[in-house]
Structure formats: structure tokens, C-alpha cells
Fold this sequence. Notes:
The complex is a heterotrimer. Helices cover about 30% and strands about 20% of the residues of chain B. Chain B contains 14 helices and twelve strands. Helix content of chain C is about 65%, strand content about 0%. Chain C has a two-stranded parallel sheet with strand order 1-2. The model of chain C is unreliable at about 1-30 and about 310-315 (pLDDT under 50).
Amino acid sequence: xxxxxxxxxxxxxxxxxxxxxxxxxxxxxxxxxxxxxxxxxxxxxxxxxxxxxxxxxxxxxxxxxxxxxxxxxxxxxxxxxxxxxxxxxxxxxxxxxxxxxxxxxxxxxxxxxxxxxxxxxxxxxxxxxxxxxxxxxxxxxxxxxxxxxxxxxxxxxxxxxxxxxxxxxxxxxxxxxxxxxxxxxxxxxxxxxxxxxxxxxxxxxxxxxxxxxxxxxxxxxxxxxxxxxxxxxxxxxxxxxxxxxxxxxxxxxxxxxxxxxxxxxxxxxxxxxxxxxxxxxxxxxxxxxxxxxxxxxxxxxxxxxxxxxxxxxxxxxxxxxxxxxxx
Amino acid sequence: xxxxxxxxxxxxxxxxxxxxxxxxxxxxxxxxxxxxxxxxxxxxxxxxxxxxxxxxxxxxxxxxxxxxxxxxxxxxxxxxxxxxxxxxxxxxxxxxxxxxxxxxxxxxxxxxxxxxxxxxxxxxxxxxxxxxxxxxxxxxxxxxxxxxxxxxxxxxxxxxxxxxxxxxxxxxxxxxxxxxxxxxxxxxxxxxxxxxxxxxxxxxxxxxxxxxxxxxxxxxxxxxxxxxxxxxxxxxxxxxxxxxxxxxxxxxxxxxxxxxxxxxxxxxxxxxxxxxxxxxxxxxxxxxxxxxxxxxxxxxxxxxxxxxxxxxxxxxxxxxxxxxxxxxxxxxxxxxxxxxxxxxxxxxxxxxxxxxxxxxxxxxxxxxxxxxxxxxxxxxxx
Amino acid sequence: xxxxxxxxxxxxxxxxxxxxxxxxxxxxxxxxxxxxxxxxxxxxxxxxxxxxxxxxxxxxxxxxxxxxxxxxxxxxxxxxxxxxxxxxxxxxxxxxxxxxxxxxxxxxxxxxxxxxxxxxxxxxxxxxxxxxxxxxxxxxxxxxxxxxxxxxxxxxxxxxxxxxxxxxxxxxxxxxxxxxxxxxxxxxxxxxxxxxxxxxxxxxxxxxxxxxxxxxxxxxxxxxxxxxxxxxxxxxxxxxxxxxxxxxxxxxxxxxxxxxxxxxxxxxxxxxxxxxxxxxxxxxxxxxxxxxxxxxxxxxxxxxxxxxxxxxxxx
Lengths: 327, 382, 315
């Protein structure tokens, strides 16, 4: 399995290099670092603009710029310099990743637990009132625009805080600007900030996963080996969990691994609304600052996420299902 | 333990199914899958249940195990050693399933859980009913695999189902069924999904399992050849109802229901003393949604008369007490051969007689099951 | 004589040719596939109710503007009026009547959704069918490309490109293009999977034996057999498109004033609750949910109707 993983990762390097080239061309053609300086008031002189162009490397040919970027990445592990002063792309991206990771881990934990419970219960009680009710609720969450729901939750939380005179929900940032001292108070502070964005994303993610889980559970419930397990005289609990759920979790696990890649590259909307300085906001601000190297760094990290999570999905599948052989 | 008694009629009544009906509600209306099944299974005997797919033979056995979906409406009575099984709590049923009554299903490719090793699935069946240490269960599992004829059982026990062939998997299922020395084994089409060459081997394992455990067996199949080699008595089902029941000899040599006769006529035989032609039954079984009154076999029956359209025949005793048939005209069938009642299909009617012997030989080779058909009594019994 | 209903289409009861056999008096009513699907769909109550509601929304969007004559871009002096008789949905900061704005927004959102759904499903289906039909290297390469579209941050690329093309005012077409790029690969994957199994069926072999060319097999034999999936996918894509359009609007990508869409309306009014004009935020949002929810239910009903495997009682 280790050999397989290493081989898969090595295989993906040429793809990664090729896609960075394409991305580089796209970024170079659409993100112009000069944009903010061209509209400055009072206007900058032609000489000042020229020196900026030299500073941003715009005077060099495109291929030379790509080569510089690539060697900088491979040999020095840097994402290149930002057009902003005092802005270290690597550090900023590292912080953004940490923030997003917090959000994603919380979201996946809650959404997964919810999805499995709802999926299993609705499959077992197919066509019961409970099934219809949870299905309708699930469809409702599937039909909510993320941003509308996030704004709504945020407003409700503000109203709740005002009405109760408490400060239970923090609606801005991933932590307070001046976090309290001590580990536990800091944890509490982080939790208060986490509730809303995590609930937003978890509710929106669980809905699709629970439908997925329900479908695979239904398939498993109708399978011959479940009937044989019952015919052996096993308890309904053991039949359901040791035989049923064990099989029904396989498709969901790989699906979640794949969806995680998308979540990691940033829940742009949720992060924007709750002002979480995560991956999503990093990308948006990179575009707004017209900083090509920041945009490149973000796209590169996203591509790596996708490759790694795809690999993890395949590995999980092979671990969970003995019929799958990694080749 | 009980000795296997060939004189089954002196055996103790183990399983009794009385007036069993099973109805499935569907979008099109109620489907009456089983419309009144009665049979008794005695200790040590093998009862073959024969019928086309959809005749209710599998559904009635799943009802015995309490494995029908919740939507099924079940009526009648199923008693095991005098205890009513219908309406029993899941907890009580758990102690019956696998322990007293074990079941073998049709498709060995899907019967075993793909994510667990064969050993685990066997040990699980043993541990479900026995409070013994795991090592002991494992030893017993290896032993069981050995009994059903799996080579290198100590090695194979740690393999996954997908590493086994279809026939080997069915042997594992048989081993699971015999794990707790059940009193009754229900085998639901145990060889249907297998290659002909493997069928005989699996049937052999099944026979071993039955002899080792001394269990009575219900053998469900649509293959009369399989039944002939294994069963003591045969129950023929059509459209959710038993239409004939009797000893193997009664059913094969002296069928009293046109459907049984038709089934026999469509079976190739090696032992025919003249070039016989197969006589297929025309048409298809009726839909079990809103059956019309009268005999359900009437549309396909060459003997059908007006009375058959109005009145459904009861299962009545024929000339021997062990042999019952559901046909108004069963007396007329005494001593009749299939080709005296059923016509050949028009397409092959012009086939020269001389081909017959060759064809019988060829089919005999292809269908191993046909070899086991006992010698016919061409004169008839009556 | 009672009539016999047979659930499998084209199944007939044979009559015996044997002497003495009575002529069977069964009448077999074979239902066509279409009738079966339609009947199953009608039994899905949520889907039927959703169909009615969705039809009302469509009427509202396309017939409504004929009855309600206020222009969606007319800025009156009535600013931030709460819903009343003259402005049933109230007005916004520019004095624009929200009812007509919602009508127009619903209209353009629906048009975008339907165009994207038809184009992406059609392209995806043909792509998937070709990929599955030829198999081998063709399949591998075509599916890797589809994977790339599935995993690539297309929304990010779109925003980046939009940054450049903003001035060129063709944002509606760019929007449709981006949404199509987002949705076609999933349609492609589903249809490919079906074609992989369909192409092994006898009727394809029969068609080939009769000398049918590849193109004919794909378009006349394979694709028509995936029609159920195609209909379900295209339905669900409508819901997906409406939601994605909203997200893109929020990120500043998509329909621009004076044109409007439901996404743009909620985006412009995202601070309306704080500002004390909650109707501006709630009403367009509810319309988005209404469309997405009804479409999801209709899609679910269609899926059940075309593929009743999950509903069948196991015997």
C-alpha cells in the first residue's frame, strides 16, 4: 500500500507540473498586478509604473517568469514574492489552511454523524412517516442557497445575542482579535466562533450525504448476505451493524474523502460571510489585490488537495472492501 | 441423535405448515404469492418442493424462517415441534434460526458477506448459539469446511468469499447451515445458480450435511432431476398452491395432475426405451394478481373442461393415502404418459424418429441431473 | 370473464395448441413503458405537489409580467416601502418594485437554468456515450478530462477570468458557459456507466450484425435507452444551476444590472435584515428555495418512476 501510494504520488507530479503551466498562463493573462497602481490617485508617473513592472517581473518573457516561479517553488520552497509589501504568501497561506482545516474537520465530523444516523434510520424505516419527514428536511437543506442560509443564521444569531443579552455566538472571524489568556478560555472562544460556520456547512453537507447513505443502506438491506446473516440467528443489532452498516459505509467513506477536497479548497461563501480568514477568503483577497503569485499558490495547494484526497479515497476503498486490489 | 429413517412416515412430525397464505401488497393490488400450502416434514426425511419460478415455493420457505419483508401478510400456521412460529417475537425466532432450522439460499455469489473472511462468517454462526471460546469455534469451523469437501480448510478459512468459486461458496453456506446441527435444513434452489458440472458435487455436500446432522430437509428446486436423486417425497406447486404431493415414485411414475405430467414430459430421459420427444407445456404461469376462479392451470391444460373454469380443484387423496392431487380429472391420468396428453410443438414435429436416440444421448451428457432419474415403469402403477 | 392485468409490457399469455384445450379468454393489457413511468410518478405525492407549485412559479415568472405592468428597472420615489397593496413585495433602496424584480429575476434564473441543463446534459450524455461505447484508451482519456472538470476549482477560474472580461458585458453567456462546464461531467459519468453495460446487450450486437454504424448505434440504440437517466439528470441540473447561480452572484460573477436574477436580488439585499427591510432578503430567497425544492422533488419522483428498484418489494 505504501508502494502504491508513493507510485501514485510520483505519477501525479507530471500532471501537476503541466497544470501549473496552464494555470500560470491563465493567471498571467487575467490577473494584472498593475491594476491597483494604474488607477491610483494621484496617478503614478510613468517611471514609477515602469519600476513597478520591473519589480513584478512583468518585463521578462512569460516562459522565463514561469521557470523562475517553478524553480523558486522546487528549489527554495517559496511561492514567489507578493505584490503587497510585508505580505509573505507562504505564511498567510499556512494560516489560511489552519483556519479552514478547523472549519472542515468540525463540519465533516458533524455532517458525517448526522448523515449516517439519518441515512440508516430512513433506510430501515423506509416509507415511514419518519422517512418522509427527514427526507423532506434533507431536500430542504439541499435546496438552500449557501449564502442565503449563512446570512440568515448569522442574523438570527445576532438577534439571539441581542434578545438574551449574551454573547453566545460570535459572528465575525475565526477567533477574537484579542483572545483570552489560558488554554480553556481560548478553546471556548474558538468554539463560540466555530458554531455558526460549522453548523451552516454541516447542515448543507449532511443532506446530500444522508441521501447517499440511505441509498447504499437500502441496497445492502436487500442483499442476500443480510438474509443469510438473519437466517444464522444473529441478533438484529449485529445483523444491522456488523453486516449492514459495515458494507453500507464503504461508498459514503470514499464520497466524503472526495468532497473533503472541495471543502478544503475553501468554503468561499461561508468564510466570506463569517469573515473567516481561511482558504476561500485568501483566494478572494488575492484576486482583489491582483496578486498573481498568491493566486498561483492557492491554485497549486488546491490541486494538491484534490490529488491527495483522491488517493486517500482509493486507499480507504481498498482498506474497507477486500475485493478491491490496488494496482 | 436420530437415525435417518427411510420409512419416513413413521418419523416424528417436525415441521407442519398448515393453510399458509402469503400476500404482498403492491401498486397493482395484492399479489397472492402463496395461496394455501399444507405439508408436514418428518424427522430425517427429504421433502422436495418443485415448481416454476413464481409458484410460491421460495416464499413459503422464507415464511417458515420468518424472513419475509414486513409488508407481507402471512396467515395460517407453521409449527415446529408443536410450537407455533408465526407471530413469534424476533428474539424467539433468533433461537430457532440457524439452531433448529437452517437455510441455504440460491445464489452463493451474493449469500456471503464480501467484507468478512469465510472463517469469521462460520464462527459467527457457531457462536450465535453456543457459548464456547473463539478458538473452539474456529476448530469447529475448520472441521465443518472439511466435511463439506473444501480442500485445505485450515488455509481457506482465512480467505475472503471472493477468493472462492461459486460451488465452493455454496459449500461454505452449507457448512454454515449445518454448524449447529439443525433439525431442519431448507435449501432454496441450492444448485440453480451453479454450473451443471458443479451441481452434482454441491448436492453431494448437501447430502453429507444432511446425514451428518440427521436433519430433515426441504429441498426447493425447479429441477425434477435434482429432486429425483435426493427426495423421499415431492410437493409440486403451481400458482401459489400445492397441486400434487406424494412419494417420489408416485410423482414420477404415476402423476395425477396434468401439470406434473407436463413437467415430466419436458424432462429429457436417458432411459427411454424408444425415441421420445420432449413435450413442453405451452404458455406461461398466470399472474398472481387477481386470479380468476377455477383451476389456475386451466389455460395451459390440454384436458381442461368447462368445470375447470368454474371450480378450483381441491388437493384430494388419490388411490394411495400418501398421494394427493388437485385435479378434477386426476383419475383419468392414471397410467398416462406425457406425450399422450401434451402435444409436441409444431416446429419440430417433422423430426425423423431415428434422431431420437442420439438426442437422448446428447442431452443426457449435458444434463448430469437427468442421469439420476430412476427407471420408469412404462406400464403405470394403477 | 375477468380481465387479466400483466405488469410486464409485451408479455402475453400463450394459448395451448393441444387438442381439447379451451381457447384462453384472457385479455392482456400490456402497459407501455411510458404509461408505467407516468403512473409511478403520479403516486409520488411530493413530486406531484411540487410539479403543481413549480408550474405556478413558471406562470408567475412568464405570465406575471404581462399582468403586473410595473417595470423591474423603474426607480420610483417609494424607497424601502414594506409590502402593501401597491407593492405586494415592497420596494428596495432604489424604489424598484420587488414584485416585478422577482418576476424578472425568476424568469432569467429559469431561462439560465433550463439552457444550462439542456446543453450540459446533452453534451455530457453524448460525451459519456461515446466514451463508454469505444472504451479502452479513448475512454480513459475522455474520463480523465471529465475528472479534471469535476475536481478543478472552476468557480475560482471563472472569478479569475471574470476579473478580466468584466468590461466586455457578455457576462450572461460567460455565466452559462461556466455553469455548463460545471455540470456536464457528472451527466457524462452516469451515462457512460449505463452505456458500458448497455453495449454488452444483445440488441447492440443485433444492430451491429445488421450493419449499423457506430454513430447509429450510439444515437439510435444506446442513448434512447438511457433516456430515463437523462431526464432525471437534466431535472436535477436545473436545481443545481439555480443554486450555483446564486453563489456566483454573491461572488460578483454573473448577471448584472439592469438585467436581474434571483441570485443578484438576494446578493444586493444581503444586509436587508439588519437594515430593517427583511422582505427584500426573504422573498427572493424563498423563490430560490421554492424552485430548487420543487425541482429536487420532481427529480426524485422521476428517478423513482424510471428506476423502481428501490421501491420493489423483495419476495
